[in-house]
């Protein structure tokens, strides 16, 4: 195979590289005096670094050492990226000595790669994360293809890198930059990775062969950190830097809930000048963290995400989306759908919101780091449609009008003879029951709820809401559409508040009752932060909008066996005055003069925490008993991804199982505060 041909190869075109002997996951190619190993995990579209992958690589490295090539090149045959990380299924259940043994075996393979007597080159593209990044770091050179992103997301699982990333990255580049990558889980995109010194070259695909030749011949220039990096490898400098890192980590991820950042900082501070000792300590630390409740719960959340996504498999058959209503929600839905490759038209009764939609979309695309051509293409797919011409052409019409029954019924009537055959109508309502809307829909079988959360560009969950007349095909296509636009579908049934708002409402409304009782809003919010919520209920109410909170609360006053707290008289008064929260500059907080707290309470009142959190667990039990969601995992996953509910606790039902005294504590709260705390009959089944 000539260099000219190689220059034009893309990873998904590597079909002539034969599988390596006795290897399911690797393909071996001879390119002149170089050996190229293509990682191509069997039966999946994404590479992961599993025990089997490393075991096969171990044998291939022995063969390569015996062959003495001029260079060994490692690449991925998957078009989506180099590797998504380690195989979480393979280590999630390991404990103690078993975990240590597995890690030692993995380290031995990567050490063998690092010690080969000829140049080794990793050519990385797309997502190069976790164990995949560690594989690349074990090579002498790293050549990135434009668009590559490298990072260590392990911190999101309550862990730190465990296959050599801690000592190899801090030895390669400025250690503080390396630590920040590992502590935050943020990725370094192509040019930043080159600037940091992670990549030795950044090239288009057609120049890869020339770059690997330069690396093989020792003609590639390198820069990995300079004087500052060397200075920070001294003990005194590491001690000062580690102290600052601990202080910053405590603000964002308190040690009591998230031990991994502090374990990582300890590793570097204690052993940053001795890679061999840091390697030993990394293995021991990773194994210890793996056994922690935080890691086990965050790994559980990983599986919850995967299960939700699996509920949306298949082809949605939706190329064109038409959105009715260009308010905040409609605009976000339209902008996000266009970004994910859908052709989108959006209409509104006024022109100004349509212009605002384009401005909002532009800001979203900039925050998501779209390249100029990607942003241009997304904006080309997003078309303001003041005359509503897209109604007749769309495969999916999403109604995102204000929460007024009569208005929605009027819109549905206007669609009756306009929508094309087979098209689906979905409502984004958060407070109206589908049972009250379905009679107005043009075709009840092709009508359902598609409840996005605000802001759509940040909140990963979408509730796919069924009703008695919705067809299975409609629900399947909506779930597939949700995964197709990179969101997580939670299949739920029509119920007051559906699932997420039914669980969230007691959290928000109990806080308002407590304000009436004289608790300060800061005290309430800081107690919730101590539990691990992403923001306190008072802040969240302002963020959601007090008008929306009022609509949701009103929708739940009837139809629930266990009521939410009564709406305080001042809430509709504030809404009437326009004091609807952060979007208005004033709500429960005055944003001209007050800043909501973002740090936990030092000595929280457990009674406050229980009053806020346990009614959410009670509502989750109610939804499980009523069949609002198919199972407990869907409920836990939906509440975590729809509200940010303390993920390191594993979800409200998992937390209740672990705590065990929730029904008894609810009974005590009911005696003191009323029937809204009465334990649901479903508790006996859970415990």
UniProtKB/TrEMBL annotation:
Gene3D superfamilies per record: 1.10.1040.50, 2-enoyl-CoA Hydratase, Chain A, domain 1, NAD(P)-binding Rossmann-like Domain
Broad enzyme group: lyase
MF (Gene Ontology): enoyl-CoA hydratase activity; long-chain (3S)-3-hydroxyacyl-CoA dehydrogenase (NAD+) activity; NAD+ binding
InterPro entries registered for this protein in UniProt: 3-OHacyl-CoA_DH_CS, 3-OHacyl-CoA_DH_NAD-bd, 3HC_DH_C, 6-PGluconate_DH-like_C_sf, ClpP/crotonase-like_dom_sf, Enoyl-CoA_hyd/isom_CS, Enoyl-CoA_hydra/iso, FA_oxidation_alpha_subunit
Residue ranges annotated for the 3-hydroxyacyl-CoA dehydrogenase NAD binding domain, each copy included: 320-494
Acidic residues: compositionally biased ranges: 591-602
Reactions listed under catalytic activity: a (3S)-3-hydroxyacyl-CoA + NAD(+) = a 3-oxoacyl-CoA + NADH + H(+)
Family annotation (CDD domains): crotonase-like
Domain 3-hydroxyacyl-CoA dehydrogenase C-terminal: 497-591
Keyword Transferase annotated: no
GO biological process, one term: fatty acid beta-oxidation
Region feature (Disordered): 1-21, 581-602
Known EC number: 4.2.1.17
Keyword Protein biosynthesis attributed: no
Keywords recorded for this protein, A-Z: Fatty acid metabolism, Lipid degradation, Lipid metabolism, Lyase, Multifunctional enzyme, NAD, Oxidoreductase
Highest taxon listed in the record's lineage: Bacteria
Pathway of action: Lipid metabolism; fatty acid beta-oxidation
Similarity-based family: In the central section; belongs to the 3-hydroxyacyl-CoA dehydrogenase family. Belongs to the enoyl-CoA hydratase/isomerase family.
Protein name according to UniProt: enoyl-CoA hydratase
Organism in which the protein naturally occurs: Roseovarius indicus
């Amino acid at each position: 195979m000539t260099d000219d041909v190689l220059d034009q190869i893309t990873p998904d075109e590597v079909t002539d590289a034969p599988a390596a002997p006795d290897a399911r996951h690797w393909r071996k190619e001879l390119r002149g005096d170089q050996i190229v190993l293509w990682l191509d995990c069997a039966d999946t579209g994404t590479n992961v670094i599993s025990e089997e992958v490393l075991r096969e690589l171990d044998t291939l490295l022995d063969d390569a050492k015996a062959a003495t090539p001029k260079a060994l090149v490692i690449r991925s045959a998957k078009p989506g990226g180099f590797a998504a990380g380690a195989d979480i299924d393979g280590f999630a259940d390991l404990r103690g000595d078993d975990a240590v043994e597995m890690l030692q075996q993995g380290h031995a393979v990567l050490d063998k790669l690092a010690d080969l007597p000829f140049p080794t080159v990793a050519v990385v593209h797309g997502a190069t994360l976790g164990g995949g990044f560690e594989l690349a770091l074990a090579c002498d050179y790293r050549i990135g293809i434009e668009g590559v992103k490298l990072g260590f997301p392990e911190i999101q699982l309550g862990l730190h890198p465990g296959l050599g990333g801690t000592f190899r990255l801090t030895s390669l580049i400025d250690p503080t930059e390396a630590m920040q990558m590992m502590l935050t889980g943020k990725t370094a995109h192509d040019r930043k990775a080159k600037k940091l010194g992670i990549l030795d070259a950044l090239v288009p695909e057609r120049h890869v062969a020339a770059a690997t030749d330069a690396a093989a011949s020792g003609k590639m220039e390198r820069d990995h950190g300079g004087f500052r990096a060397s200075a920070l490898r001294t003990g005194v400098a590491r001690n000062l830097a580690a102290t600052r890192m601990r202080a910053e980590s405590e603000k964002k991820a308190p040690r009591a809930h998230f031990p991994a950042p502090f374990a990582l900082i300890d590793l570097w501070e204690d052993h940053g000048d001795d890679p061999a000792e840091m390697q030993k300590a990394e293995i021991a630390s990773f194994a210890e963290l793996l056994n922690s409740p935080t890691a086990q719960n965050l790994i559980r959340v990983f599986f919850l995400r995967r299960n939700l996504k699996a509920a949306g498999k298949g082809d949605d058959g939706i190329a064109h989306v038409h959105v009715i209503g260009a308010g905040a929600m409609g605009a976000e839905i339209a902008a996000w759908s266009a970004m994910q490759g859908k052709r989108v038209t959006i209409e509104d009764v006024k022109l100004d919101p349509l212009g605002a939609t384009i401005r909002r979309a532009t800001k979203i695309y900039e925050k998501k780091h779209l390249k100029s051509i990607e942003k241009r293409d997304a904006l080309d797919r997003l078309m303001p449609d003041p005359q509503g011409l897209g109604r007749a052409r769309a495969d999916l019409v999403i109604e995102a009008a204000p929460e007024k029954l009569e208005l929605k019924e009027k819109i549905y009537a206007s669609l009756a003879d306009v929508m094309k055959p087979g098209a689906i109508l979905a409502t984004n309502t958060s407070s109206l029951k589908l049972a009250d809307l379905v009679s107005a829909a043009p075709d009840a079988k092709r009508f359902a709820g598609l409840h996005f959360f605000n802001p759509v560009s940040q909140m990963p969950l979408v509730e796919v809401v069924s009703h008695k007349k919705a067809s299975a095909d409609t629900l399947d296509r909506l779930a597939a559409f949700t995964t197709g636009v990179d969101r997580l579908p939670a299949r739920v049934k029509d119920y007051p508040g559906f699932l997420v708002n039914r669980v969230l409402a007691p959290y928000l409304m109990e806080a308002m009752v407590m304000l009436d009782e004289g608790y300060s809003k800061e005290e309430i919010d800081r107690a919730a932060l101590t539990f691990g919520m992403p923001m306190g209920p008072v802040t969240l109410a302002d963020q959601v909008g007090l008008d929306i909170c009022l609509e949701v609360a009103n929708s739940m006053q009837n139809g629930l066996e266990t009521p939410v707290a009564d709406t305080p008289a001042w809430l509709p008064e504030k809404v009437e005055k326009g004091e609807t929260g952060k979007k208005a500059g004033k709500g429960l907080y005055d944003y001209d003069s007050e800043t909501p707290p973002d740090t936990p309470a030092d000595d929280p009142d457990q009674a406050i925490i229980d009053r806020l959190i346990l009614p959410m667990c009670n509502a989750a039990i109610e939804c499980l008993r009523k069949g609002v969601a198919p199972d407990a995992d869907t409920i836990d996953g939906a509440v975590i991804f729809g509200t940010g509910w303390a993920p390191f606790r594993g979800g409200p039902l998992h937390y209740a199982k672990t705590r065990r005294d929730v029904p008894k504590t609810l009974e005590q709260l009911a005696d003191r505060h009323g029937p809204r705390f009465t334990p649901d009959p479903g508790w006996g089944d859970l415990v």
